[in-house]
């Protein structure tokens, strides 16, 4: 049961990255934050289009790593933990560079995932 919940959480977190970062911004319904705006990258002079491409690329990598971790967890492979850590680190980098308070839950999820893997918790996954 615990394994199934962990798989669903990893898969859903991957879906969330695609749903939040990949769609084009609808001017009639602007999102609470914009992937084409990063205070850090904009201050460095990076054009909006490049900022958006970087955000989408990092979000896709993060989502795919979450899905890979879920698949490896289903198959019983020990490699799931490495993919999960990679996803969490990519997610934290993404949320740090494009910080917005709306992304705070994602930060908590990524930090929780890192902590769970570091503590080998829950034991049923190991």
UniProtKB/TrEMBL annotation:
Taxonomic superkingdom: Bacteria
Key words, A-Z: Membrane, Transmembrane, Transmembrane helix
Transmembrane segments: 54-73, 105-123
Record protein name field: Uncharacterized protein
Annotated organism of origin: Streptomyces calidiresistens
